[in-house]
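Q: Convert this sequence to structure tokens.
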Amino acid sequence: MEQLAKQRSQALAALLLLTLIWGYNWVVMKSALQYAGPFQFAAMRTFFGALVLFLVMFFAKRPMRLQAFPTMLVLGILQNVGFTGVLMWALVEGGAGKTAILTYTMPFWVMLFAWPLLGERVHGWQWLAVLSAVLGMLLIFDPLHLKADLFSMALAVLSGVCWALSAIMTKQLHRRLPDLDLMNLTAWPMLLGSLPMVLFAWWMPSMPIQWTPYLIGAVLFNVVLCGALAWTLWLFALQRLPAGVASMASMLAPVIGVVAAWIQLNEVPDGMELTGMALIIFSLTLISILMMRPAYKVVPAPATAV
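A:
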């Protein structure tokens, strides 16, 4: 019993470090875009992140064979182009804190998409989470007073939608190949999806990359800390905690992103935006609590460092 408590304490400490890394990374990514275009930075973080994961797989003697190539390719495009690329574009156009909150609506979209795609109906308290998330997004978008960053907010939501679709596809793939290694399922889509990102980075017009110490540090932060280390912490926590508990703890990341952007980038949300953010955080917390119920079975998606 004492050993179990110690393991859970270590897992919670790993999750806390993970959320600090992911949460603060919103400020890191936003600041790095002063020195590189969004697709250039996204390509560097995904391609080199994939190489680091393959190195970890090699030394950990994990299975490295590519399986289900078409599905892995679509997953890679959703996760890297649809999620990471669109996310970086959103950060160019808008604030880090608001982008973090809107991107993390991913669990809300998973719940909605799981109804037609997986046959998992929305019921009971889940409807409260749906209504809270919708109202929160409406308050942030403020359709009666359209704002200059409307395009950025739409991109952030689209990024979350792509992340959600990739999670649905991951769950479908797990049903077909239940023994597929989770690290393999993370590394191959990242590598395959990074290739079109590299093409986008080469093809899209952008300012020349300025290899400043900050940009180099930001790339290393994303590749090493948000990639290899964060993925290892996530897997460590998932092995010792229920998936719902781990997911709920990860919801601290967008909160940390908002606070860090507020302090470091002077992105001060107004009253309506704060209310909308609070409603979305409530919705995501409620979804995570519902996931902890014994009757709620979930297959965790591969960690996506943000």
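Residues 2-32 form the longest helix (31 residues).
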